[in-house]
Design a protein that fits this description.
Layout (H helix, E strand, L loop, with lengths): L1 E9 L9 E4 L4 E3 L4 H17 L3 E7 L11 E8 L9 E5 L3 H10 L5 E6 L2 H4 L7 E4 L3 H7 L5 E4 L4 H14 L4 E4 L3 H12 L22 H21 L6 E11 L10 E12 L2 E7 H4 L5 E12 L1 E7 L13 H14 L6 H15 L2 E8 L3 H13 L4 E7 L12 H15 L5 E7 L7 H13 L4 E6 L3 H10 L6 H7 L7 E5 L5 H10 L2 E4 L1 H6 L7 H7 L3 E3 L11 H14 L6 H16 L16 E4 L5 H7 L5 H11 L5 E6 L2 E2 L5
Parallel strand pairs: 6-7, 6-9, 7-8, 9-10, 11-14, 15-16, 16-17, 17-18, 18-19, 19-20, 20-21, 21-22
Antiparallel strand pairs: 1-2, 1-5, 2-3, 4-5, 11-12, 12-13, 14-23, 23-24, 24-25
Pathway: Purine metabolism; guanine degradation; xanthine from guanine: step 1/1
Cofactor: Zn(2+)
EC number: 3.5.4.3
């Protein structure tokens, strides 16, 4: 199939930049506007399919020469979706025992070139017909000779050989997947073995098959492992960027300082441009300084272009309970949240919701989120897989909770630790994915589980930690009744070693002076969730008081208690809450907060929330005239700050003209 995308649209055109369609040998999905333009694109796409071409470009004037009268000009990029036979990645399966033979059989119809490798001819002789096999006394030599991007699965009859092969594979550093059959105990032994050799064990997948089944039947293990392999290999394939530069033009705005601290806080370029190559920003400057002949341009004038929005607290499993009528926090959790999260243990549910969730985020201009998953490791696996496939920066973790909820959404202290440990090994630092150790909150975790969370923090100090603090007065009373020795709510987290500048404390509304002082001393972050706090009647966040005390705050949607995925609507409600507090949220401070400010709260300001050269091109394009009411109001706007305030109060997903993740347009024009 060939994807046809509008890269640039100038003048009068049937579709804007970002529109796309998919062309197969006998089918077409989507549209780039119909007419002769679309006919020419379909014809060229089918020529590519017949010739095996990978990509092409078309620059089409929409004038009389092609029988159209629009008068504009459209630049198209055509690229093949899905691998050609020569693109199939190699999968080397070591060990022709029961599981190895079952895995080779499961991989046979899939778009990979799998080879079953063993030193025992009697085992290879039992392989099903049609399966590629190789008999060798030196299996480690096959790993050394493997193509970059290959996958290696280790299932031999000998633990020592497993360790040798896994160490050889990890030392390559350029394989798409390295997996080894075994248990958490085997992984721990292997970790000690390779660390002594100076090899990083983190990329190893062990146990294989997502670690989500306790079924020991070879066919079941093979099915899970094949699914895991295809997910990884497909994600790696989708991350191959078109090796071309593109220039995104518009009114560019970004921040280099906090508007609370200095008047010199932002950069604004009236006719600006962002030069992007392979998903990264090369330069930001005046358009005339960067424009050149032959460069692909996407013209977003007169819209504003900012770094993509960052949401520092959101619940991925609650996408289908947003806007559920209810009482306050604890009732809402029991009535809606926990029953909904039970569904994430159902086959196929988490991947479907992950795609919908990420589409909603990017549709609202958000390019990075800090997400709570359900207790089921499948939910985190699905979210990370979907985000990785899009090259989208995500911070997430499966919740740890072992009491005060239905059995279907509970783990145990040990299982919560083991599942989190496996997910950290699999996903933390994979591409743009980061793991957050996630004890949901003190009410749903026993002291034993909180201790396990603290152990994870000590073992993985570079992971984020997320939980909830002092959202609701009833919640605080219940929490302190469960931990009678605690000085206050924060002390529970402090006692178990969770406080640091990587800790995100959702809500943080009803804080005592000691808690505020300790948050400032340890660098622990508060997270303001305005739409949720109003919807659930939780209270009014004291941003000014916390800032004066030295506490850094993020701002977030908190969907599904929050009522909108839009960071613009989050600013709208945040402005009103701070008004009730006698505090102000100026337009520049607001947009700093949802870009660079939230990146600072995460300690990721060098990677997200910025337009600095070398950073990934995560961008949001904002239309301040997106609705008739906004357009009417904009007629009286005289300054950039006034325009930003209109977006802050009246904006939503309709104001997001386009969202880019690593330079790729994510929102299709309509």
């Amino acid at each position: 199939m060939i994807r046809v995308r509008v890269i640039s649209a100038r003048g009068s055109t049937p579709r804007d930049a970002g529109a796309e369609m998919f062309v197969g040998p006998a089918s077409v999905e989507g549209t780039i506007g119909g007419g002769q333009l679309e006919y020419m694109a379909i014809d060229r796409a089918r020529q590519m399919l017949a010739a095996g071409e990978a990509e092409a470009g078309m620059d089409i004037p929409l004038g009389p020469e092609i029988g159209q009268c629009c008068g504009g000009r459209v630049v198209l990029h055509l690229d093949r979706q899905g691998p050609t036979p020569e693109d199939h990645p190699d999968v080397l399966v070591f060990g022709a025992g029961h599981v190895g033979r079952a895995l080779a059989l499961a991989l046979h119809p899939l778009p990979v070139d799998a080879t079953l490798i063993d030193s025992r001819p009697e085992e290879l002789a039992q392989t099903a017909p049609g399966i590629s096999t190789k008999l060798t006394p030196l299996p480690e030599a096959e790993i050394r000779a493997a193509r970059p991007g290959s996958a290696v699965v280790i299932l031999t009859h000998d633990h020592a050989l497993d360790f040798l092969l896994a160490a050889e594979a990890l030392s390559r550093g350029n394989l798409s997947y390295v997996g080894m059959i075994g248990s958490a105990t085997k992984r721990a032994q292997f970790t000690r073995f390779v660390r002594a050799k100076g090899i990083d064990p983190a990329p190893l997948i062990c146990p294989i098959g997502a670690g989500f089944t306790h079924d020991k039947r070879p066919a079941v293990i093979a099915a899970f492992t094949a699914a895991e392999l295809i997910t990884r290999l497909t994600a790696a394939s989708s991350l191959k960027k078109i090796p071309m530069q593109q220039l995104i033009r518009g009114r560019v705005l970004d921040f280099h300082a906090d508007p609370h601290d200095t008047a010199d806080n932002h950069r604004y370029i009236q006719d600006g441009a962002i030069l992007i190559e392979d998903g990264k920003i090369l330069a930001v400057d005046d358009y005339t300084a960067l424009a050149r002949e032959g460069l692909v341009e996407i013209d977003h004038r007169p819209h504003l272009i900012l770094p993509g929005f960052i949401d520092t607290h959101i619940h991925f499993p609650q996408v289908q309970v947003i806007a559920s009528w209810g009482a306050q926090l604890l009732d809402w959790l029991n009535t809606y949240t926990f029953p909904e999260e039970e569904r994430f243990n159902q086959q196929g549910h988490a991947p479907a919701m992950a795609d919908a969730f990420l589409n909603l985020l990017t549709g609202h201009g958000t390019t990075t989120a800090v997400a709570f998953c359900s207790v089921h490791p499948e939910s985190a696996e699905a979210l990370f897989s979907a985000a990785h496939a899009r090259n989208m920066a995500m911070v997430a973790g499966k919740v740890m909770m072992d009491r005060n909820a239905p059995d279907a959404v509970l783990d145990t202290p040990q299982r919560g630790y083991d599942d989190s440990k496996a997910l950290i090994a699999r996903w933390h630092g994979t591409g743009r994915q980061r793991y957050a150790i996630t004890p949901r909150f003190a009410i749903t975790s026993t002291p034993e589980q909180m201790a396990m969370a603290g152990q994870l923090v000590r073992e993985h100090p570079d992971c984020h930690v997320q939980t909830h603090l002092s959202e609701n007065l009833e919640e605080i009373d219940f929490t302190l009744s469960l931990y009678p020795q605690a000085r206050d709510y924060l002390d529970i987290y402090e006692t178990h070693g969770l406080l640091s500048d990587r800790l995100l404390l959702g809500h943080s509304i009803h804080l005592r002076p000691r808690e505020i002082a300790r948050m400032a001393e340890t660098g622990s972050r508060a997270v303001f969730c305005p739409t949720s706090n109003l919807f659930l009647g939780s209270g009014l966040f004291d941003e000014g008081g916390l800032r004066a005390a030295g506490v850094v705050s993020g701002i977030a949607t908190d969907v599904g208690g929050g009522t909108s995925y839009s960071m613009l609507q989050t600013l709208n409600e945040g402005y009103k809450i701070l008004q009730l507090r006698g505090q102000k949220l100026t337009p520049l401070s607001a947009f700093h907060w949802i870009t660079r400010g939230n990146a600072l709260a995460l300690g990721m300001e060098d990677r997200i929330g910025t337009l600095a050269p070398g950073s990934m091109a995560d961008l949001v394009v904002l239309d301040s005239r997106a609705t008739p009411a906004m357009a009417l109001r904009m007629e009286r706007a005289e300054t950039l700050e006034q325009e930003l305030f209109i977006l802050q109060i009246m904006g939503d997903d309709r104001s997001v003209a386009q969202t880019y993740v690593a330079g790729q347009a994510m929102k299709t024009a309509v």
